[in-house]
Design goal:
The chain is mainly alpha-helical. It is built from 19 helices and no strands. It has one domain.
Length: 424
Amino acid sequence: MALSRIWSAFIIVAIVVAGVKCVFIDGQQDIFNWMVIGKADDPANPLKLDGIIQTCWVAVELCLKLIGILALFMGLMSIAERAGGIRLLSRIVGPFFSKLFPEIPKGHPSMGHMIMNFSANLLGLDNAATPFGLKAMESLQEINPSKDVASNPQIMFLCLHAAGLNLIPVSVIAIRASQNASNPTDIFIPCLIVTFVGTIAAMLMVSYKQKINVLQPVIITWILSLSFIIALLVLYITSLNADGIKSFSGILSNGLILLVFLLIILGGIYKKIDVFDAFVDGAKNGFETAIKIVPYLVGMLVAISLLRTSGTFDVVISGIKNFFAMLGADTRFVEGLPTALIRPLSGGAARGMMVSTMETYGPDSFASRLSGIFQGASDTTFYVIAVYFGSVNIKNTRYAIGTMLLADLVGVCTAIGLCYLFFG
């Protein structure tokens, strides 16, 4: 119900804002045309954004591209499951996850799927994280007593996933380097801190709702151990330049993916299973999952498109800036806020907003650095909601959306504070 209300509000607000602009602002009489049939690459389009018709095509194309990725990783997951690799991974993380996800049976394969998803997210491997995450949702749905209502484990998993704990924001560093920033990697530590704070905030909020005691020795030990490992990596990475970080990230993330592939195949051969048959069986599920999420993705992307093309974001940003100016506060952070506001809706749009901020204010400006931290410090919340809940036909998301958005807000506030702390 919450998702339905938010989706409806997006559409209603966007059309009302566009209607006001069409009637009362000169030169905006064609706004309805561009909202419906506009194309971002059309030179005559003043908005430079896709309308809802083009957005529908984009949504379907995105799902088509997902088919191959989902087929590959779900096929490999099928091999790992038959070879017992997922059960082994579940036993390793069981002591921690059994406390954080008390409703999941001991040794359930969903634990292995979730740790694969979190690991891929940590390394910035979006293409791998999505299939692992969808497989985790599918596994959690098997033990969900109410199939159309989000279960406690599903909410905990998605809120942690959406917090976007990421070790190295490679894409942000690369874009800053391409924009000739004096130090492209200077946002690395703030990004890591923000994602860590957002993840902890999400865990605490969901734990409070689900009455989970996070002060248990096992949970504290795992969190401290993870923090220690991240701290060691930070110490090493901060000694590298921008090129060194990109090279290290490529070796670490892509090398680990290839290592996982190798271990899965070797495990399948050792267990004497038909690895290719297992792969094909799993890959079929990838195709079915990609098709299943098309309606959810189309609906969400169309609503987001209307918000963007109607100029609603401009109205919100202008209102925020005027409010803080009225209070006499420093308003430099407002210039970086468009990235934060659009990030939960669209990763691509937020990336474009970050580049636009750099081009407008310069790559070494306060606004550009803040925009980079926003971009590297969270996931696309509404995309996650549409795709992951849609893949298992969840209709009642309970408090998941509110928790995710509140965790995003914690991340935004933390990012602003750190930006002032690091960059003045």
